[in-house]
Automatic annotation (TrEMBL):
Residue numbers spanned by region Disordered: 18-51
Coiled coil: none
Stated family: Belongs to the class-I aminoacyl-tRNA synthetase family.
EC number: 6.1.1.10
Pfam families: Anticodon_3, tRNA-synt_1g
GO MF terms held by the record: ATP binding; methionine-tRNA ligase activity
Domain Methionyl-tRNA synthetase anticodon-binding, residue spans: 473-631
GO biological process: methionyl-tRNA aminoacylation
A cellular component term, taken from the record's GO annotations: cytosol
Highest taxon of the lineage: Eukaryota
Species in which this protein is naturally found: Macrostomum lignano
CDD domains attached to this UniProt entry: Anticodon_Ia_Met (cd07957), MetRS_core (cd00814)
Protein name: Methionine--tRNA ligase, cytoplasmic
Record field: compositional bias (Low complexity): 19-31
Amino acid sequence: MCEQLKVKLASLLAEGCNSSQSGSRQQLRSSNAIQQPRRLEPPASGGGRASPVLPVAGQRNLLVTSALPYVNNVPHLGNIIGCVLSADVYARFHRQRGVNVLYISGTDEYGTATETKALAEGVTPQQICDKYHRIHADIYRWFGIDFDYFGRTTTEQQTSIAQDIFWRLHRAGHVMRDSVSQLYCAKCEKFLADRFVEGTCPLCQYADCRGDQCDKCGRLINAVELVNPRCKVCSAAPTVRSSEHLFLDLPRLQPQLLAHLESVMDAPDSQWTDNAKHITRSWIKIGLQPRCISRDLKWGTPVPLEGYTDKVFYVWFDAPIGYVSITANYTKDWEQWWKRPDEVTLVQFMAKDNVPFHSVIFPSCCLGAADNYTMVRHLVATEYLNYEDGKFSKSRGVGVFGNDVQATSIEADVWRFYLLYVRPESQDSSFSWEDLMLKNNSELLNNLGNFINRPLQFLKKYFDAKVPEISLSQEDLRFLHAVNHELQIYIDSLDKARLRDGLRRVLNISRYGNQYMQLNKPWAQLSNKDTAARAASVVALAANVACLLGALLQPYMPRVAIRVAQQCGCLPTKSAQQPQAEFGDRPPLLPIQHPMRRLLPAGHRIGEPSPLFAKVQRDQVDAMRAKFGGNGARGD
């Protein structure tokens, strides 16, 4: 190893450390600047962050959104990894790196999905929204999703902002009028919105295709294209009639949209996923068509134009505006986030079926409104997470749902870990009970948990829970070089929203740590006075890497990360006993920095080590598969 690299690696453990060279080793002694582990101290308000969070001039300001989940049912694991959990990891990581982040989401409450659910349950649409908003909020809180604000679209701000955007589009000549052929149920005496009709898919022949999208092939369709359509309310066969509606003139807006898309999708720092680019370009390639923005419904944002006041806005015109209105419910200064595009970077997370509405329709509305809206800069879309041998379907109750997992004996952070481990980033992936057990027992229990626990237990048992001095050997420098290599890839991966790869790097570091401990065998060297100092140094270095892993786990497994920080003596133990506040009990965070710094200086006293993970047994998995697999969503 060249001397330059050796000197560089020797400085990794601490900034401001005094180092003295002795032969092939360097001894690192802590200076006063690092007597305590360094932390990023959050503002002392609002659950650990200033409230409201606003953009700061001259800083990097990230506005992070996750696709607004429909409020008509309980989210399944595919919904959770597809939007809210992925965005949560990304937001947590950037906060930990010192970036100013606002993470907002909420329930999408208007439209036919809500009306059909209310009809099925015999209640009003508002009662459905209130019920399922609480269910969603409780599930996301259990999963530790750290929103700055989780709102809803049934608000006065939603009506005001959506109608303002509509009037701006209308005055600019971007709204057209045309008649639409719709299915009409004579028995119910009303036009049937897309979710009120089912039939056979004209493309794949799926017999239970919805009137807006096929669950089997995923294609968007028009309800009148269904073969053998039937009314969902009374099962009668509807007929086709004409109804007057409003359309967004997408062809007129296409040049502006193309200029925007080219500037963000092809940018050197673009974080657009390949599927998001492909789906967007396929829409552009076939040519944009005028798109209907009104519906013959009662439950929705009212259309304010005379002659159309008996209609509401179509949900995919209305719903993306929910990001804006939810921010407006969070802070009266919402325009600082949504109308300062030069100061704010908008990053949006979703599953691939939502891409066109976020990459084409919503940006077109914002551009056409000509009101200086913040436009999407990075669009991160997942593929689909399947369930065992089939597909999750929220609408059809197939798969494992958010309220099911709360009834298991497996903690939320383990669910977070597994969903992120199998996150469908480049192709569809599958949830498997067998694989969940395997990954918990091998990666969490035997790899990650084992390594973090080993040096901490050594410190408690043989060193009075105090961290010894570190004297680096050539072998230690090679170990640190490997750790820093993985650390750099981890940072690069999360900065580019490659979340699954970042998690792999955490596990690689712990594997290196286990190999390092096994190779050096400090338990065998402690009894020999000639090797005891070496054993102490090995344990101290390993404990610092264990502490680093706690920091790297924070975006992925925040509650486990708190326990690691407590066991390392970097947080008071009492914080683990405090219940999580509304979307976020946010203690001070250890920083994620490259190259690795020394987090536990010599003389630092650690906390009480204990196992981080429990083994998942075969009978547990068998029981959970039988109890929860495919039973459907239970919202009561």
